[in-house]
């Protein structure tokens, strides 16, 4: 049981779980998802046999609602580690979800783990900090993790999207500031911020959509001249659309890169 004086929520629970853990390896796991019965064994064996790896992942498959082997499906971006793990992770070329990695406990000691003050993108925030400084990852070419897709997931197509904008922007800003010279990471991050802006426009939440635009404008000078002009043009049309209270559908054209 988590002590009553600790914050509520999943982030605090994961941090507390780590604090009281005694084992050599750490695996955080969510109750909605399912692991293959040999998942832990395969990953422990990999780390035991290859001491140069500090953590490892496996392939992942997804299912909707009720788990059934016949209905499992894959996504194309989940296992392409490539030559630049950090950039590939940030830009979505490889997906590393909370339930997938097995970590050596010793590499997490003394590190900031889950930020208990944010409500979304906590996995991205935590993993990006670790991966940026430690890219000693091992990979198992087996489907060992099964992720449940929920109707209310922000990654589920055609579902109602719920975004905690302060958390979203805080994490994106941290990522941008970590590698201010990496234009690929910055451009990808700002594209996701503009996606969030458009979502908030569709909800007529102009207060939060302006916050998204503000972050893009603050970081436009880190982009190429063409993209700086593009961001500025988007800002001009944004205020025009907000003044007319026009929704996001017509604005979509201006967000194409």
TrEMBL record:
Q: Which InterPro entries match?
A: Glyco_trans_2-like, Nucleotide-diphossugar_trans
One Pfam match: Glycos_transf_2
| Tagged with keyword Transport | no
Every Glycosyltransferase 2-like domain range: 5-75
Q: What range does the record give for the signal peptide?
A: none
User: Which species is the source of this protein?
Assistant: Zunongwangia profunda (strain DSM 18752 / CCTCC AB 206139 / SM-A87) (Wangia profunda)
State the protein's name: Glycosyl transferase family 2
Report the GO molecular function annotations.
Answer: transferase activity
Keywords of this protein's UniProt record, alphabetized? Transferase
Domain of life the protein comes from = Bacteria
